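Onboarding guide, step 5: your first structure request.
Type a short instruction followed by the sequence, for example:

Predict the 3D structure of this protein.
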Amino acid sequence: MNRDQILATLRERILAFATSRVSRDHTEDLTQDTMPVLHEKYSMVSIIKNRLRVCRSPIPGTIP
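The system replies with structure tokens like these:
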């Protein structure tokens, strides 16, 4: 899984979570605001295995 695939997976999960919590009008904005924060916070994660773990971790407050 390359970097673009990882980011796409993260974006899909964030969008799904946002859709379950806020109005549809705000989900895209929330997703776009969250992606740079994740990039900054997890930029030091360089090993694909660790990135996959981040992608697959359950989102708090949801049923896995």
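Each response can be followed by summary notes, for example: Residues 3-56 form one domain.
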